[in-house]
Design a protein that fits this description.
The protein has 297 residues and is mainly alpha-helical. The protein has eleven helices and no strands.
Length: 297
C-alpha cells in the first residue's frame, strides 16, 4: 500500500518487513562467514607454501641489498665510470651481439613457423566437431598435451645432447613446444566455430579437405594468425633462455658474461634483448590488429 508521498515508495507493515530484514541479515552473515573461511584457507595455503618452499621473508629482506648492488655493478665499466658515460666502450661487442640476437630471432621464427604448421594439422584431428574418429582425437590431444607440458628448455637439453650445441636444438625445441601450445589454442578456436557452413558442405557431399578449406578456414584464419604472432613473441624470449644450455643465439653469450663477471657486458646484452623484445611486441601487436583480432592497447 502506498503511503501517499510523491516518491511512490511502497512501505510494508512492520509485521511483514521484520521477517524479510531478518532473512537478509542472516544471508549477509552467512556470506561474510564463507568469505572469512575462504580468506583463512587462502592464508593457510600461502603459509604452507612458504614453509614447503623454504621461503624465509626475513632472509629475503636481509639479502635484498645483494640484489640491488648487482644492478649497481652492471651499470659500471671496468674503469668504475657509469656505462652511459662511454657508450662505445659499453657496446664494444655490438656487432657480435647483434649477430647473435639476429640468430635468436631466426631460431624463434623457424621454430614457430614449423611448429605452427604441425599445430595446424593436429588441431583438426583434435577437434570433435571436425574429426568424428574418437581414437584419432585421443591420440592427437595426448600428443599435444605432451608437447606443451614438457618445458621447451627441457626439449632443448635433450636435443643438445642428441645433436650438439648450436641453433638446431633451439629450433627443434621451439618447434615441438609451439606445436603443443598452438595446437591446443587452434583446436579450441575450431571447436567454437559456426557449424552451419560445415553442415551445408557435408549435406552437399563435401570431403574433409573441402570442409576445412571452405567452411572452417574462413572463420578461424584470423585467430590462427593472431595466436601465431603472439607465440613468436613468446618464443623470442624462450630462445634467449635456451641459449643458456647451448641451443644457439644470444643466450650463450649472455650466460658467459654472467659467469665471467663481465658486468658491463651483462648490462649491454640485457639492453639489446629488452629493446628487441619491446620491438617484437609492438610489431606483433600491430600485425595482430591488422588481422582484426589483436588488442587495441
Amino acid at each position: 500500500m502506498s503511503d501517499g508521498n510523491s516518491t511512490g515508495i511502497v512501505s510494508l507493515p512492520d509485521g511483514q518487513l521484520r521477517p524479510l530484514v531478518s532473512a537478509y541479515e542472516r544471508a549477509m552473515a552467512k556470506s561474510r562467514f564463507y568469505k572469512f573461511l575462504f580468506l583463512l584457507a587462502l592464508l593457510v595455503a600461502v603459509a604452507w607454501s612458504f614453509w614447503m618452499a623454504e621461503i624465509k621473508p626475513l632472509t629475503f629482506i636481509d639479502k635484498i641489498g645483494g640484489f640491488t648492488s648487482y644492478f649497481d655493478r652492471i651499470s659500471k665499466l671496468d674503469s668504475g665510470a657509469r656505462v652511459w658515460t662511454d657508450p662505445v666502450e659499453w657496446f664494444w661487442g655490438l656487432r657480435k651481439w647483434l649477430r647473435l640476437m639476429f640468430e635468436t630471432l631466426l631460431i624463434s621464427y623457424l621454430g614457430t613457423l614449423i611448429g605452427g604448421m604441425g599445430a595446424f594439422v593436429l588441431c583438426f584431428l583434435a577437434s570433435a566437431n571436425i574429426n568424428s574418429l574418437a581414437w584419432t582425437r585421443f591420440v592427437a590431444k595426448r600428443l599435444l598435451e605432451f608437447f606443451r607440458t614438457v618445458p621447451d628448455i627441457v626439449f632443448a637439453l635433450v636435443f643438445v645432447v642428441a645433436f650438439g650445441v648450436g641453433p638446431l636444438p633451439g629450433v627443434l625445441a621451439i618447434m615441438v613446444h609451439t606445436t603443443g601450445a598452438l595446437g591446443k589454442q587452434f583446436s579450441e578456436v575450431v571447436e567454437n566455430i559456426d557449424m552451419k557452413p560445415i553442415e551445408g558442405l557435408r549435406a552437399a557431399g563435401g570431403n574433409m579437405f573441402q570442409i576445412i578449406r571452405f567452411a572452417v578456414l574462413p572463420q578461424v584464419l584470423g585467430n590462427f594468425l593472431s595466436y601465431g604472432l603472439l607465440r613468436y613473441e613468446i618464443n623470442v624470449r624462450g630462445a634467449t633462455v635456451m641459449g643458456f644450455v647451448g641451443a644457439g643465439g644470444i643466450g650463450d653469450e649472455f650466460l658467459l658474461a654472467i659467469r665471467r663477471f663481465y658486468y658491463s657486458d651483462v648490462s649491454a646484452i640485457l639492453v639489446i634483448i629488452i629493446v628487441t623484445v619491446f620491438a617484437i611486441d609492438m610489431l606483433t601487436t600491430k600485425l595482430r590488429q591488422k588481422v582484426g583480432v589483436g588488442d587495441r592497447a
